[in-house]
Recover the amino acids of this structure.
């Protein structure tokens, strides 16, 4: 069925969406993150969720984004990587991929700089085009890809470095997150802990559906502390969780005990 991109209301935190001839409860459908223990801890990531990972470095983010990408491919999701930063890519990319993106970027006949590679659409967006141009291009991509897309975004902290202000970084997230939510997408955003003002982090935390604090002692000892999980609750959800990326095991830290 063809989906009409139109939000018509809400009930008990669940969005209603029109299809041709149907009104369906579309949002809040559970999805798999690729880490079963994390799904249990968070009562699942849901369609509509923006997930912000507050990490020490991007290696920590890789522990969570790699299984998410793998799972999305297995589930035949419309998987999209929004590439805009100077840091190494957050998915596997080759020199040939970069070369093809550059060709697309310089092609006046294409609307976007985009290639498809190994089940992922990779969009290259230039943040040096200033806030308004960059944001509008990202929103056009989101509109083009429509409902139920799965996204990986480059690190939000790189936008602060480009625009030299936390304000614009926070504003980008504040106007982009609700648009993604309306289209029942799932989006992963990393941000580097300790690099931004309290006001900027507060704005992002207020807007997103999930805000997860991550730190690690080693590749086998990664700690996740959910600081915000919107519209779901369990007795252990907001406790710390110890995750071993090599085994995939997630353990709740009860009473501060490991």
């Amino acid at each position: 069925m063809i989906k009409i991109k139109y939000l018509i209301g809400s009930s008990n935190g669940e969005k209603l969406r029109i299809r041709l001839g149907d009104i369906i409860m579309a949002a809040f459908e559970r999805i798999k993150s690729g880490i079963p223990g994390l799904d249990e801890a968070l009562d699942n990531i849901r369609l509509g969720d923006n997930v912000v990972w507050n990490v020490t470095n991007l290696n920590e983010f890789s522990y969570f984004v790699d299984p998410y990408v793998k799972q999305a491919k297995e589930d035949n999701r419309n998987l999209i990587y929004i590439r805009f930063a100077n840091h190494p890519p957050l998915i596997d990319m080759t020199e040939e991929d970069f070369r093809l993106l550059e060709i697309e970027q310089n092609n006046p006949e294409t609307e976007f700089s985009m290639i498809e590679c190994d089940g992922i659409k990779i969009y290259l967006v230039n943040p040096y085009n200033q806030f308004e141009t960059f944001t509008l291009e990202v929103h056009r991509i989101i509109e083009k890809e429509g409902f139920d897309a799965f996204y990986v975004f480059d690190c939000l902290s790189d936008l602060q470095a480009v625009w030299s202000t936390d304000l614009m970084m926070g504003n980008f997230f504040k106007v982009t997150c609700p648009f993604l939510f309306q289209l029942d997408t799932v989006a992963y955003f990393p941000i580097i802990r300790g690099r931004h003002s309290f006001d900027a982090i507060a704005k992002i935390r207020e807007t997103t559906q999930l805000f997860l604090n991550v730190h690690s002692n080693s590749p086998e000892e990664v700690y996740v502390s959910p600081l915000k999980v919107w519209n779901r609750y369990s007795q252990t959800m907001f406790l710390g969780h110890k995750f071993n990326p090599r085994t995939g095991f997630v353990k709740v830290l009860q009473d501060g005990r490991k």
